[in-house]
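Tip: read the tokens left to right.
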């Protein structure tokens, strides 16, 4: 299995992305296609141990800036790293894409080159947030900021299929993010979506959930619009950073505390690992007819390596194919729910 990696995406440059991809390839036993300006990528590779690995460099000299309009940028720059890597997935030279670059361009390019799964109107970014019971899958995390009610139903169906197929969660429960658990709570989108989710096939709908229910692990899957989901994600990341920094300051404020902290260091290290976004590394863009993993712009080497693992897991579980097959089975009922 070969994973295509956008070698120049992300805030830290090609050296970090390439090193992380190499680590991921070794850890998860995959081959790599690194897309980016050839000289820059090979320079980054010169600092890595690639012995025993199958690595291809695909020259992609054009750069998509963060200020560019996504769809237009992908069309105008066919030799950008995102476009070249997606072409590799499209023509079968790679099985999946990992990118920490312009997420809008990744989504626009995936729609243009790979297309949507039949029966899915909008793709959704699905990522895990830590909870008291493990992790909660939340979608959408930023792909569709202004969805319609039936889009959220599709998000719930895709999230259910993904968590069952990729992680073996039997009959996962689904919650609709709102400002109260009562069916009457929420904005117009939430109130219109509630009865559709309650009637939709293939979903074990728990009802409305509040923001703190995500970290409590009340349900396995939480659906929301991309604007709210992205705010929730960034808030969770900020809270995790705050907890880690507060613990560090408090536990190193005196010699006695430092000594006690040394004894408890293994436990603190596990807490930091549980709260670290880099452990997940990337989030799948569900609804696309191919495996596309979107990583955080500030991904470090460990996050990129983890994203390679997520890509392999999604491909081995045939997540897009499973979504396509099950959505085809649900399509008549889904259409009637959306019409209602």
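Filled-in amino acids:
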């Amino acid at each position: 299995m070969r994973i295509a990696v956008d070698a120049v995406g992300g805030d830290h440059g090609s050296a970090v992305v390439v090193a992380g991809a190499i680590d991921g390839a070794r850890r998860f036993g995959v081959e790599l296609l690194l897309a980016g300006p050839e000289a820059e990528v090979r320079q980054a590779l010169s600092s890595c141990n690639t012995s025993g690995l199958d690595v291809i460099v695909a020259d992609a000299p054009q750069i998509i800036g963060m200020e560019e309009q996504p769809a237009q940028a992908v069309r105008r720059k066919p030799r950008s790293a995102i476009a070249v890597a997606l072409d590799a997935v499209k023509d079968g030279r790679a099985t999946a894409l990992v990118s920490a670059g312009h997420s809008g361009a990744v989504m626009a390019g995936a729609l243009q080159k790979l297309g949507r799964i039949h029966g899915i109107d909008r793709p959704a970014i699905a990522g895990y947030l830590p909870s008291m019971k493990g992790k909660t899958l939340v979608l959408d995390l930023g792909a569709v900021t202004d969805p319609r009610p039936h889009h959220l139903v599709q998000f719930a169906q895709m999230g259910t299929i993904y968590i069952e197929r990729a992680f073996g969660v039997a009959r996962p429960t689904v919650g609709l993010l709102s400002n109260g658990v009562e069916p009457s709570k929420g904005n117009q989108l939430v109130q219109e979506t509630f009865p559709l989710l309650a009637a939709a096939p293939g979903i074990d709908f728990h009802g409305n959930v509040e923001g703190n229910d995500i970290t409590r692990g009340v349900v396995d899957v939480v659906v929301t619009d991309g604007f709210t989901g992205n705010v929730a994600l960034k808030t969770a990341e900020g809270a995790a950073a705050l907890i880690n920094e507060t613990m560090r300051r408090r536990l190193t404020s005196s010699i006695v505390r430092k000594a006690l902290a040394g004894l408890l260091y293994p436990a603190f290290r596990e807490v930091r690992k549980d709260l670290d976004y880099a452990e997940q590394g990337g989030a799948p863009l569900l609804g696309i007819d191919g495996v596309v993993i979107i990583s955080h712009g500030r991904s470090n080497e460990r996050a990129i390596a983890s994203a390679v693992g997520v890509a392999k897991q999604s491909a081995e579980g045939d997540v897009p194919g499973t979504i396509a097959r099950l959505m085809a089975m649900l399509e008549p009922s889904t259409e009637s729910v959306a019409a209602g």
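Residues 1-120+287-340 form a domain with the Isopropylmalate Dehydrogenase fold (CATH 3.40.718.10). Residues 14 and 41 are 7 Å apart (CA to CA).
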